[in-house]
Specification:
It is built from 1 helix and 9 strands, in the order αβββββββββ. The chain has 106 residues and is mainly β. The N terminus is likely disordered. It comes from Methylobacterium radiotolerans.
Length: 106
């Protein structure tokens, strides 16, 4: 039974989005999402997230804040990776920008 569950988990995971900065499209009040520089690193909501995995289309990771008392913990990213490489969160589309910097307005 454990082997079956492990096989299902592996089959449901997939590649993460391409490394880079993803900006919200028309989502005022949302900051960018960073993928990389490590192979499973995500930067979101001011947190560094490691060991990110795509499970059934949703990203899951262990995240840390800037607090010295934070030992990290599971953070439900609720971040969907779309088939074209874009991401969606809370109904807002995030698109990879060609050159990191500032996200374009609106």
């Amino acid at each position: 039974m454990r082997i079956l569950a492990l096989a299902a988990a592996i089959a449901s995971s997939g590649p993460l989005p391409a490394p880079g900065m993803f900006c919200p499209v028309g989502g005022e009040g949302y900051g960018p999402i960073f993928v990389g520089p490590g192979p499973r690193d995500i930067g979101i909501d001011g947190m560094d997230c490691h060991d990110a995995r795509l499970v059934q289309g949703k990203l899951r990771a262990t995240c840390f804040t800037n607090s010295v008392t934070d030992h990290g913990g599971a953070y439900p990213l609720d971040l969907e990776v779309l088939s074209n490489g874009d991401m969606a969160r809370f109904g807002v589309l995030f698109r990879r920008v060609p050159r990191p910097g500032m996200c374009p307005a609106g």
